[in-house]
Design brief:
The chain is an alpha/beta fold. It folds into three domains: 167 residues, no CATH class; 39 residues, no CATH class; 108 residues, Glutaredoxin. The chain has eleven helices and eight strands. The strands form two sheets. The protein has a five-stranded mixed sheet, sandwiched between helices. The protein has a three-stranded antiparallel sheet with strand order 2-1-3, with no helix packed on it.
Length: 369
């Protein structure tokens, strides 16, 4: 049994470290997934704290994984792991059974798992953690307590430090559709291996105080029925039929769709993504750096477009007040901006339809158009 427990520890420890690291590469991704669950539950009390929860959870997974491998304080960590995996299993089970959440974000966007795959993974982990929990009192630490504490202190500092870095400079590994090298137009197309869902239309009629549903066969006296509603029902799920980029649409302040015109350019240009102006002021470094980048690019006849979900506010900030730069502003769906730009703001250099480079908010000072 000792061998089985040690194997379980290695598997659980490695998986938790791996899972935590993958998600720590993009803490915003997990926070957005939390918001998706809250939306499904109509529970918004904690919406403003999802990023903090994301950072803490990612760090805990890494720390707990290392603690399990070291065998340190197993009475404590076996309880914590058991509670955590029960919670995870509930979430993935809900995603699977409800159908409201397609992916749980267990391994971030780099390794997308279906709800079914995530649920099975958590059931296996639950079994392994239960084994560890049952023999928690017999697990001895590998090193002396002082060395284990020092190692965990270093791991803790690195876990939080790494997440701070990627939230300032962008993820080290970008696994999203707007990563460097991707062609935006190609990413907006339905994949070649797409399997479309099979649907049927249900018509609802009423007669004599009773409701009747029909699909492809109708009664001869249909004209005596009162039409109530029609619904589309999926009878066979499709797969991979949605394009990676779904709602990238650039609209002028007057509402004109200019997407094709902008990304159809053959010359270099820049997108300056800034989803909203909450918690941002022109006194911050980002504004000074934007003005510098914009003026330098303009001197070389290189276009810089501001892309935001708050067009009127951006126009006021950049064009009506302060420097009165005369920036061209486009509005775009906020979710698409969050996907394209994991920091606020974020600069993207384009070569025609292809993403050539990206800079997070802390790296704007290194940009030389």
């Amino acid at each position: 049994m000792k061998i089985s427990v040690n194997i379980a520890r290695i598997i659980v420890g490695v998986l938790f470290i791996f899972s935590g690291l993958v998600k720590a590469n993009d803490p915003y991704g997990l926070s957005y997934k939390m918001l998706e669950f809250f939306e499904a539950w109509n529970f918004h009390l904690l919406d403003n704290y999802t990023l903090a929860f994301s950072v803490l959870m990612n760090a805990f997974e890494i720390i707990a994984g290392v603690a399990v491998l070291l065998g340190w304080r197993m009475r404590l960590f076996s309880w914590l792991l058991l509670l955590l995996i029960i919670f995870f299993t509930f979430l993935t089970g809900y995603a699977l059974l409800s159908g409201k959440i397609k992916t749980c974000g267990c391994f971030g966007d780099c390794i997308p798992l279906t709800a079914k795959q995530s649920f099975i993974k958590d059931l296996v982990l639950l079994a392994l953690i239960l084994l560890i929990f049952a023999y928690r009192n017999k697990i001895k630490p590998i090193f002396k307590s002082s060395l284990s504490v020092s190692m965990l202190a270093i791991v803790t500092a690195l876990s939080f430090g790494f997440q701070w870095y990627v939230m300032q400079y962008l993820p080290v590994k970008d696994c999203l559709p707007y990563k460097v090298g991707n062609n935006i137009v190609e990413q907006m197309k339905v994949p070649a291996n797409a399997v479309l869902p099979v649907t049927e239309t249900i018509f609802i009629y009423e007669k004599g105080g009773k409701q009747y549903t029909f699909t492809d066969r109708f009664p001869a006296d249909l004209n005596t029925y009162k039409f109530i509603d029609r619904k589309d029902r999926i009878i066979k799920e499709g797969s991979n039929y949605l394009p990676p980029i779904k709602d990238f649409k650039l609209s002028t302040l007057s509402g004109v769709d200019s997407t094709a015109e902008i990304i159809g350019q053959t010359t270099d240009y820049y997108f300056f993504f800034i989803k909203d102006f909450d918690d941002l002021t022109i006194k911050d470094d980002w504004y000074k750096e934007f003005v510098r980048i914009y003026k330098a690019a303009k001197a070389k006849n290189i276009a810089v477009y501001v892309v935001t979900s708050q067009g009127d506010l951006a126009d006021k900030l950049f064009n009506q007040e302060n420097e009165k730069l005369g920036v061209t502003i486009y509005t775009c769906d906020g979710t698409e901006i969050k996907t394209a730009a994991r920091t606020k703001p974020c600069l993207m250099k384009m070569k025609g339809e292809v993403i050539d480079h990206k800079w997070g908010k802390a790296a704007l000072s290194t940009v030389n158009p």
